Each structure stands twice: as structure tokens, then as C-alpha cells.
Amino acid sequence: MIDGLLHGFAVLSSWQNLSLCLLGAFLGTVVGVLPGLGPATTIALLLPITLKLDPTGAIILLAGIYYGVAYGGTLTSVLMRIPGEASSVVTCIDGYEMARKGRAGAALGIAAIGSFFASTVGILGVMLLSPPLAELVIAFGPWEYAALMLAGLSLIAFFAASGLAKAGLMALLGLMLGSVGLDPISGTPRFTFGIPELVDGINITPLALGLFGLSELLYLALVKDTKAEILRPPTSLLGFLPSKQEAKRSVAPVLRGSVLGFLVGLLPGGGAVLASFLSYAVEKRLAKRPEEFGRGAVEGVAGPEAANNAGTAGAFIPLLTLGIPSNAVTALLLGALLIHGVQPGPMILERQPEIYWGVIASMYLGNVILLVLNLPLVGLFVRALEIPRRYMAAAILAICVIGVYSTNLATFDVLLAAGFGLLGFALRRGGFDLGPLVLAYVLGPTFERSLRQGLLISDGELGILLERPIALGFILAAIATLAAAVLLRNRARVAD
Amino acid sequence: MQRRTLIATGAAALFAPRLALAAWPEREITVIVQYGAGGSTDVSTRAIAAEAEKILGVPVQIVNRPGGQGTVGVQQIAAARPDGYTIGTTGLAGLAIAPHMLDVAYGFESFTFLPAFARYLYGIAVRAESPHRTIQDLVNAAKARRTTFGATGAPNNIGMFDIARATGARFQFVPFGSGAEAVTATLGGHVDAVIQNPPEMLPALESGRLRLLASASAGRWKEYPEVPTLREQGVDVVVDSMIGFIGPKGIPQDRVERLTSAFLEAAQKPALAEILGRFGMVPSILQPQEFERVAREAHDRFGPQLREAGLARRR
Amino acid sequence: MTASARNSAKPAWPGAVEPAMTRTARCVALGGVIFAILAWREAAKLESWGWDGPGPGLLPQVLAVLMGILALAVLAWPGDPTTEPEGGARPWANRTFLTYGIAMLGIALALPWLGFVAPMLVATIAMLRFGEGTSWREALLYGLLLTAGIVLIFGTALGVPFPSGIAERALYSLGLVRGA
């Protein structure tokens, strides 16, 4: 193992690979910062260029973009309430509130340090635990996924700051939006109204950028130009860093988020997104002051940000050890490897150890680069908050429009995003939580698909669940979560 | 969408100097790919475009237009200006399968067919723990009890339905979102068998966790020359799909001929075979008329079969 | 809802107008009811039970019914009016809000026909001049700066194809952006 790692660093020590690692991490940060322009789009854009590189260099560059994005996505979430990536949606909730209280630097600092720690945990996990965890991925069949998604959906109860009926309504809306497009089993078009752009479903980019980014634009118009005053960006360098108390409160969430994110990130389908939401729910449940959540709780930034970075590393395990991509980005990485004649899978360690260890070593180095790149920049980025509203608003609009368009080159998506912007504005004024909507939107399709696959396999029998301990465990967890949420709510009401 | 393309290409044509036709093509050719970058359709198109560039003497640029299960890109090809400068690639998915599932604004009469250059390979496999060694074992098991198989969709599943019809076995199709998911479910024993392409199956096959029972294509896989095809094992079924070039209807005949000869020449380059092999494809040249005939036949055959399986939209 | 939430639900900053939260919530709930009815009508066309298990229509139909019920519940109990104080009053009478809204919708509608650059320029100028009351000069200058910045970062540096429009065609020929 140590030999392997040393070999990896030897591979990395060429000038070319070193600069590719740096370039990848930098590009990833930029791409993460720019909303809509996700890692999948960027890797797709860069794929033809990487053909000119050797396989190791190409994969180091592309992997750099992939994990760099997990860092960059936080920035616009905290500063502008525009989720840079789907996995940063949760960060919009408390990160942006922290920024409104003048703690943007602390939020970004915690996120960067938490991300670094979580990525390191993730990489160690990839190195040490790959084979047994790969077995876990295989043990997950349709029933297990359906049960896991159910458990994930039950977390909505913890996002229900505005009351269960309102949160439930939002979750249903999310599920409904998720069901647009082709039915996952029969391929029948649902809610497509003959619009070809809707056949593939509603993309997360117009949804997230509309609900969060464009609605913020409309919302900004209503607050008197007092924003800069509220924000009071600190003037000294130390002011950007988290305070001692904030740092102390973040330690446990980062630890929990790292482990949680790593495990959930292994699994196909929205791993990093689910991980961030899961971490948020757990932190809210465990927090001494849960009422601070949604009003700028540092735990609500530290946990999810650690979780989504650890999840990013976790997704490499099925790719490298089984040759199975667990999300759209790792699928592209797989394509890139295949173009270069590298077949990822269990044999990669024997056949092309320089690729395997090169990637691992580049992940270590990339994360150091990212921390060094991100921390000093926090001070610079926080200055963005001093930009007057009139300049900020137009910039939000421009970035959201081109970001949404660039994902699928579909002008229809931009129209959709504008609609979501209006919806998000109305929902916010009506006191609805957007968390349940996004969570249900992400998990719903996988839940339906897995459930129906399971029913096809078992020929409609539900009794098969009793033979599947993992699935049963998740279902019990879901029931326990809901019960706990209802009981705690009642107790709070009695105390009231 | 359509209108935008018309405006764009219309304006482009306006600016293009009108010179003698003999010098055609005189500017870059755009090839629309119906899926995103990095997939087998995209990579194979890029590979042959790189070869064709040298033959045609102008840049051949790739534009990915994913969406609508690959129909958005095909729709754009149909709506492009028929000057030969905008063409695209497609397989059976866009021409013979999607029209049965979705309302599409194109038909065979919307296109000028150009050559096809590659075929996909298919294989049927079970996990290592499974008792089945040959396709006959699997069929016998499926005669005794309902047997599940994972696949992404047509034409893979139609191949299994064909086997079921030919042998009287009971196969239950379980659709998965990607080939990788179907293979993973097979490894975990969640479904009994899988019918997919080599790229998804090779890692598991090489590590011995998955066992190839048969090549479902006309020929054997080069990685597993000892595994016979379905035909060789007495089941007269071949799963076939190809990728080829199409353009909008009405491209002038001399330009069609120029493009055809260029792509036919490019398709024979060894560098292309190398890249195709990595994505589980084999070079296989079909003349334009032949490509159109195969696609039309597949279209007519798949319709009733998909409807029978409850997978096509009702008319 | 909870005691603690109620206590901490002070306006986020001084001077914020107490919002008409319940009214908006009721409007949203009403929209939810209408949405649920329309969704039901659409979902009812789909098969709810196929030959091999639940059909494509089952989930949407269940969702539509549940959504209708919950929307009615929210209509009846729109929640604690003091939670989530957001935004000022009467957006429809606010000039800035209207300008921003029109700019957003305008770009979305103009994009397929006019491309990105020209509508963005017009929208930025409108947002600054009419929404914020800056001078024409400032609006024009910032509009040009912002649009050029976006074109250079997204189009030139990152190679994102832009939708075709009047201005884009000139940029294509300059090699600054790629065509879609």
C-alpha cells in the first residue's frame, strides 16, 4: 500500500502531471463557482482536449475538476444563495444566512477546512476499504435502494420548520416535478405535453438555479439597498476565519459528515446530494440549539459540506474497483478512461497501477492545492458582498441564464428556470421550506424506479422484504425517523 | 428549436461564397451527435470524423445535442438545411425504437441516408455463482420458472423476447437506467441474467464474477473467442444495432456521393477499429441503401414487439 | 411552530415590514389545489396498473390526490404568521421588483430568437436605469462590462456554446464563442 502510494507520487512528480493536477483543481473550483456549469458539462467540454494527453495525465486532470467542483460549489451558495452544484443546495440554507449575519468568511472557511478533512477521510477510505465496500455496492439491489430512498424521504420531517403540512406539500411538489419525463419502467412519457425537452425530465440545474438563484434576484429587489450594511464584511484577515466557538461547534459535524458522506457517496444515484441532506438532518437532530438551523447555524454548513466532499471521494470506489460509475460525472470519467484504452475494474491495480495510484496521489495533492487555493481567496471572495445590489442583481441574472443554458444547450430550460424563479419567490414569501422540495425531487425518481424494479423481480410479492435485512433496516429507520419527528414535535408543543 | 436552426443555417448560407460545386466541401462540416460527450456514440463519431477530416480536407466538428432520449439531436438533423454541411450520426435507437415510444416530428422520409460504419456487440451473461454454463441451461431454467434479466431497453430486451418466443422460456425484463446498473444487479444476484454491451460487462467478466454464456451478435467477441454465439448454440436470434450517418432530406446528389465515399474510406482505417474496439463495437460498413433498409426493417419489427411487451405508446 | 422557533422569529433586520406571509401561503396553497387537479387530469390518462405491476400512472395519481389534500390543509392552516419573515410588502407596486421580474422573463423568452448577448445587454441596462434609477451612462457601461465578462469567461475561456442571435453571429466570426 505504502509502496503503491509512493509509486503514485512518483507518477505525479513529473512536471506535466503536476501542472495538470493544479490545472484540474483550479478549473474545478472555477466550474464549481459558476452555477449550472457542472463537472459533467466541463468534463464533456474538455474530453476532446484530453485525447492529446497520456491516459494518466488525462485522468488526473479530469479527476481534479471533479473534486475541485465540490469545493467551489459552496462559494455562490454562501454569497449569493445560488447553489453552485446540486450537492451545495443545503449550504444555501444556513450558509447564506450566516453571510447575512456577516459571517460569510466563517462559513466559507469552515466549508474549506471541513471539505479538506472530509476529502482526506474519503481518500483514505478509497485506499484502505475499497474491496469490502465494493461488495456493499453489489449487495444493494432494487429493494435496498427503494428502502434507502424511503429513509431519505423520511428526513423531510426534519426539514419541516414551517409545519408538516407545508413541508409535505413541498415534498409532493418535488416528487411530482421528479416524475416528469419518461416513466422509468415502461418508457411512457409523463407530463411532457409533447415538449421534447421535457422527455428527459426536468433537469436539476434550472430547478435549483431558479428556485434559489433567480428567486433571490426577485427577493433582493424588495429589500431596501441595505444589504451591504447587514453583511458588514470584516476588515482584518483574521476576521475572515471562523471564531474559536464556531470552529469548536464544527468539529463533530465535520467528523460525522465525512463518514456519512463517504458511505452514502458510494451508492449510485444522487449520492453526494443525499449525503449533504442526510448530514444536515442529522446535525439538526443532534444540535443543542436546533432552532438556529435555517438562521445561520454553522453546523448546517460544516456537516453537509464535509459530507458532499467525502461523497465525491466515495464515488471513486465503484468506478475504480468494479468499473461501475455511480453518477453522471464518474460515467464520463469512465468514458475518458476507455478512450485512452484503460479498462477500470478489479484488474486495474495489476494492469495499470500507475493510473490507480496516480489518481489516488493526485487526490491527496489536489486537496492540498484546493485548501491552499481556497482559504486565502475566502477573504477576496467575501469582498463580493460589498458589491451594491444594482450590480449584483444583473450579475446573478446573467450567471443563472448562461449557467442553465450551458447544461443542455436548451433555451427551454432557461424559460423553466424563470418559472421556478417566480415559484421560489412565492414559496419563500409564503414561508415554505425549499429543502423538502429539492430532496424529494432528487430521491423520488430513484425510489419509484427501484420499487417497480423490485416488484418486477419479485413478481409483485412484498414478502421478499423479510429476506432482505438491509432493506428492512432502512424501512424501520424511516418509520423511526417519522415517529421521532412527530413525538418531538408534540413534546415541544406541550412545553409551549 | 427548429426555427432557430433554420435561421442560423440560413444566415450561414447567405454569407458563404457561392463557388463552383467541384470544390465541395469548402467549409467545415458539422456532425450532430444525439447523445452527450464521452459515450460510445460520441466517441465513435469523433473517431471517424477525425479520419474523414483528412479525406475531405475541411474540419469536421462535433456538436452534442442530447435530449429527448436522443430524439432532439435526430430532430435537429432532420430540420437542418440540406446543403450537406450539417449531418449527424444515429443508431437504431433514434430511427427504429424511439418513434414507437415517443411522438417524434420525423420519419424515414425526413432523411438522406449516408453509410453506417460500426455495429454494437451484445452478450448474455450470468453471475459466477449461477449454475448456468450455456445459453441452453439458462433457457431450460427459464422454462421451469420465471427468470429475470436486466437490460437498458431495446434492442437488448427484444433479443431476449425473441429467445423466449423461439424456445418457450419465460423471461421477465427488468429495465435499468444504465448498462452498469444492470450488470451490478446481476453481480449481486438481484436479477438472473444480463444482456448488454462489452464495455459494461468486461470488468466483471475479466475478474471472473460474471460468466458470458453467449455472444448475442452475429460474431463472437474478440475478448472471448471460445464463447459461441446464440446461433451457434442453436438459438436463431441475433441482436443487432449499428451507427451510421444521416443528413436532412434533399442534399444534392453529388454532395451525398462525396460524403459517402469519404466516410466509407474513413471507416476502413485501422485507427478507427482500435477506438471502436474499446467501446465494444466492431467496424462494419453498410452502404447508404443498406443502412436505410436495415433501419426500416428494424422499425417495422420492433413496433409490434414493443407493444406486445407493454413498452410502446398506444396509438 | 415550536416554542423556540416562535421566539426567534423576529424580523431579520430592523425596518423590515411584517410580511403578508399567511396570504401568500394561502395563494400558494390555492395554486397547489389547481395544480393537483390539472396533474390528476393529466395522470388519469396514464395506465395505473400494467400487466407486470404498477403502471406509469400510479405514482402521479397518488401524488396528485395527496397534493390536493395537503394543499387544502395549508389553505385552512397557513401556518404561524410570524415564522419566516421574508421580503417587503406589495411586490407588485415595487418598481425595482417589476423591472427585475420583467428582465428575467424577457431574457428567457427572447433567448431562442435573439440569442444571449443582446437581450442580456438590454436587460442589464433596463435593470439599472429603470429598476435602480442610475444614469444611462452607468447603466450602459455596466451592461457592456457584464456582458463582455460573461462572454469572455463562459464563451471564450470555457468554450460554452452560446445560443445563436444577432450579436452572437458577429462573435462567432471573431472566434470568441462557439456556435451551438
Indicate the topology.
The complex is a heterotrimer of chains A (496), B (315) and C (180).
Chain A: H1 2-12, H2 15-33, H3 39-50, H4 55-80, H5 89-100, H6 104-139, H7 142-154, H8 164-178, E1 181-182, E2 189-190, H9 204-222, H10 227-231, H11 237-240, H12 244-265, H13 271-286, H14 299-314, H15 316-322, H16 328-339, H17 348-351, H18 353-382, H19 389-408, H20 411-429, H21 435-458, H22 469-495
Antiparallel strand pairs in A: 1-2
Helix pairs in contact in A: 1-18, 2-4, 2-18, 3-4, 3-16, 4-5, 4-6, 4-14, 4-16, 4-18, 5-6, 5-14, 6-12, 6-14, 6-15, 6-18, 7-21, 7-22, 8-21, 9-19, 9-20, 12-13, 12-14, 13-14, 19-20
Chain B: H1 2-15, E1 29-33, H2 40-56, E2 60-64, H3 71-79, E3 86-91, H4 92-101, E4 111-120, E5 123-127, H5 135-144, E6 147-151, H6 156-167, E7 171-175, H7 179-187, E8 193-196, H8 198-206, E9 210-215, E10 242-248, H9 253-266, H10 270-278, E11 281-286, H11 288-308
Helix pairs in contact in B: 2-9, 2-10, 4-11
Chain C: H1 3-8, H2 21-43, E1 49-50, E2 53-54, H3 58-76, H4 95-114, H5 117-131, H6 136-157, H7 166-174
Antiparallel strand pairs in C: 1-2
Pfam families (chain A): TctA
Protein name (chain A): Tripartite tricarboxylate transporter permease
Domain DUF112 (chain A): 18-439
Task: Give an overview of the whole structure.
The complex is a heterotrimer of chains A (496), B (315) and C (180). Chain A is globular. Chain A has helices at residues 2-12, 15-33, 39-50, 55-80, 89-100, 104-139, 142-154, 164-178, 204-222, 227-231, 237-240, 244-265, 271-286, 299-314, 316-322, 328-339, 348-351, 353-382, 389-408, 411-429, 435-458, 469-495, and strands at 181-182, 189-190. With 496 residues, chain A is mainly α. In chain A, strands 1-2 form a two-stranded antiparallel ribbon. Chain A contains 22 helices and 2 strands. In chain A, 74% of the residues lie in helices and 1% in strands. In chain A, a hairpin with a 6-residue loop joins β1 (181-182) and β2. Chain A has one domain. The termini of chain A are far apart. Chain B folds into 2 domains: 2-120 and 241-308, Bordetella uptake gene, domain 1 (D-Maltodextrin-Binding Protein, domain 2, 3-Layer(aba) Sandwich); 123-233, Periplasmic binding protein-like II (D-Maltodextrin-Binding Protein, domain 2). In chain B, 43% of the residues lie in helices and 20% in strands. Chain B contains 11 helices and 11 strands. In chain B, the strands form 2 sheets. Chain B has a 6-stranded mixed beta sheet. Chain B is globular, with a radius of gyration of 21 Å. Chain C is built from 7 helices and 2 strands; from the N terminus they run ααββααααα. Chain C is mainly alpha-helical and 180 residues long. The N and C termini of chain C lie far apart (50 Å). Chain C has a two-stranded antiparallel sheet with strand order 1-2. Chain C folds into 2 domains: 3-76; 91-174, no CATH class. Classes of the chains: A mainly alpha (496), B alpha/beta (315), C mainly alpha (180). Chains in contact: A-B, A-C, B-C. Chains A and C meet through α3, α8, α9, α19 and α20 of A and α1, α2, β2, α3 and α4 of C.
